């Protein structure tokens, strides 16, 4: 397993945000953390990407411990947060080249990588425009492209389609599916069952920091029961009064 989590806990004062969750993700698959606001999804991602230290338990990414080996973890992951982390005053190309240089690429290699990613995410025509002129969907695609500059083995996507219209969501879903076909492992958080159903091999349902259910999208849907209320009226007059 490329992601291994055992008994992961995170508290803030007396509030227990993660209450001992266990996760496993096989390489080249998609795991969706599904749940409402406050379920602990973003906190879990922050711990797994070394942004927040856990209060207990263990987590390993590609065999590296997130507490003892944070630098090694960062070398193999990419992260796209809930809000696009791009420089609005630079062009799309400049954003990607800058990040490539920060990742250790030579200038020529960084420009080649930037060009490839701009093409991949349908941003080539806007490559030399300032990002402040981009639509919300274009910014999200650029943000996703930036998370791939270093060639991560595991990509974390924290509610990647928040604020996007249906067309923008579809474009992003297609991009994520393409990455998985190439072998990238994806861990995404979402509030949308449709998104988890479309992208995930396995779904973990979080509720108040605990794992409420886990399984394939089809298995979880099959296990969800429905309730039906039937009203029987002895006469038409009773029905009219109801």
UniProtKB/TrEMBL annotation:
Domain of life: Bacteria
Keywords: Antibiotic resistance, ATP-binding, Nucleotide-binding, Transport
Matching InterPro entries: AAA+_ATPase, ABC_transporter-like_ATP-bd, ABC_transporter-like_CS, ABC_transporter_ATP-binding, P-loop_NTPase
Predominant localisation class: membrane
Localisation: Cell membrane
Coiled-coil parts of chain: none
Membrane topology: Peripheral membrane protein
Gene Ontology CC terms: plasma membrane
GO biological process, one term: response to antibiotic
Keyword match Transport: yes
Sequence ranges assigned to domain ABC transporter in this UniProt record: 3-233
Annotated GO MF terms: ATP binding; ATP hydrolysis activity
PANTHER family, sorted: ABC TRANSPORTER ATP-BINDING PROTEIN (PTHR42711), DOXORUBICIN RESISTANCE ATP-BINDING PROTEIN DRRA (PTHR42711:SF19)
Protein name per Swiss-Prot or TrEMBL: Efflux ABC transporter, ATP-binding protein
Species, as recorded: uncultured Pseudonocardia sp
């Amino acid at each position: 397993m490329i992601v291994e989590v055992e008994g992961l806990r995170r508290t803030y004062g007396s509030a227990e945000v993660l209450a001992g969750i266990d996760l496993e993700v096989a390489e080249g698959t998609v795991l969706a953390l599904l749940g409402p606001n406050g379920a602990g999804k973003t906190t879990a991602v922050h711990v797994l990407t070394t942004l927040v230290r856990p209060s207990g338990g263990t987590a390993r990414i590609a065999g590296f411990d997130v507490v003892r080996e944070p630098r090694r973890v960062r070398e193999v992951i990419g992260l796209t947060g809930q809000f696009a982390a791009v420089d609005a005053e630079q062009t799309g190309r400049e954003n990607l080249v800058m990040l490539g240089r920060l990742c250790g690429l030579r200038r020529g290699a960084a420009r080649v990588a930037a060009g490839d990613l701009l093409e991949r995410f349908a941003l080539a025509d806007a490559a030399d425009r300032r990002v402040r002129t981009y639509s919300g969907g274009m910014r999200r695609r650029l943000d996703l492209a930036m998370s791939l500059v270093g060639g991560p083995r595991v990509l974390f996507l924290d509610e990647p389609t928040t604020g996007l219209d249906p067309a923008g969501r579809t474009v992003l879903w297609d991009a994520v599916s393409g990455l998985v076909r190439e072998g990238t492992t994806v861990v995404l958080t979402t509030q949308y069952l449709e998104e988890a159903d479309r992208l995930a091999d396995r779904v973990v349902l979080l509720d108040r920091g605990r794992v409420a259910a886990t399984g394939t999208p089809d298995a979880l849907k099959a296990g969800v029961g429905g309730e039906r209320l039937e009203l029987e009226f002895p006469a038409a007059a009773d029905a009219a009064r109801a």
